[in-house]
Amino acid sequence: MRNGLHSWLYLSASNLNVSEEPLAIHQIVDTSRARNVDMDVTGALLFSGTRFVQFLEGPLESISSLQASIKRDARHRDIISLSVRVLRARQFGKWALAYNGESAFVEKVLDKAMAHHARGSRDGMDSLIKLLKQFSPTD
Ligand SMILES: Cc1cc2nc3c(=O)[nH]c(=O)nc-3n(C[C@H](O)[C@H](O)[C@H](O)COP(=O)(O)O)c2cc1C
What we know:
This protein is α+β, with helices and mostly antiparallel strands.
C-alpha cells in the first residue's frame, strides 16, 4: 500500500542533560511543527525526562524520510521501533508535543510497554497511544 496512511511508533532514550533540555525540546518542537505540516504528518511526541515516545502518521514517503532523520539524531539513542503500520484513519488530528516532564505514572507506562515488547507482545502499544492522546492538547 504505497499511497496509504502509514504510522511509526517508537521509544528512545534521551541523550539530553538537564541544562540543555528546555532549549533542545524547544528546537525539536519548532522543527517538527513546520516540517510535519509540510509533509502532511500528524502525531505526538512525549518526553518523560529520560525517554521519548513518538507516534507519527502520514504518507509513506514522509514517514520514511522522518524515520531516517530521527534515527540519526544524536539527541537520543536506543530507538526501539514498536510498530510500523498501515492505518485506515488518522489517530491524531495534528502534531503535538504531548508531554514534557517527569512523572512516575508516565515512567510506569513506558516500563510496561518495554517489558511487553521484550516478550514479543504488542500489548503495550495501545497503552502508549492512549498515553499520547491523554497528554495531547485537543485545541
Ligand atoms: C525525539 C525526537 C523526535 C523528533 N521528531 C521530529 C518530528 O516529528 N518531525 C521532524 O521534522 N523532526 C523531528 N525531530 C528532529 C529530526 O531528528 C531532525 O533533526 C530534523 O527533522 C531535521 O532533519 P535532517 O537532520 O535530516 O535535516 C525529532 C528529533 C528527536 C530527537
